[in-house]
User: What shape does this take?
Amino acid sequence: MSHHATASAINTTSTVAPSCEEASARAFQIVPERPADVAAREALLNRAMGLTRKRKSSEKLRRGREPADGLAFVAYGAGGKLVGTVRLWNIRLGRRGAPALLLGPLAVEPAAKGVGIGSALMQRAIFEAARLGHRAILLVGDASYYARFGFSAVKTNRLAMPGPYEMERFLALELEAGALDGAHGVLQPAGRKLAIRQALLSTAASGCAP
Assistant: This one.
């Protein structure tokens, strides 16, 4: 298991603040996502990322699929509002390659940024993925931000996303040393397919046409 998946990863409540008002603003809790969170999560993603998020190459690996078991989390603020989300998805490293995870989207309510919610979501996701025996996580994102969690582009040069992307933003983290050695090909979706009713509900919540 990666040295990033430490016990500190499950410390999901911010407690340091110089005033009662700031303490209330900074307090949050990371919990497993529930079906009742879908509408609030999709609304948050629309505010944080815009409707064009559905056009990203990563969406081709998520569309019509369920997140990996036990690997979808949300953050709730002190007032009971959903203020953050992250999900991981089952994929394969090439058409006949080994299984891995795709992380994303990671999003935080714009008004709640800067208090550690995104970092807490990442730490929880990495910790749980390692605990459940997954060997590697991939994502497309800002290399300077995700480097703090151990992600880099060192082992993604022979892999590709199923659509347009910037190579320097295609990153990976090995939860087991050598998990990506020799990996090559275009990432493939591997998660369970959503039931038709679930897919329709998710599409309606996102505000996008099927």
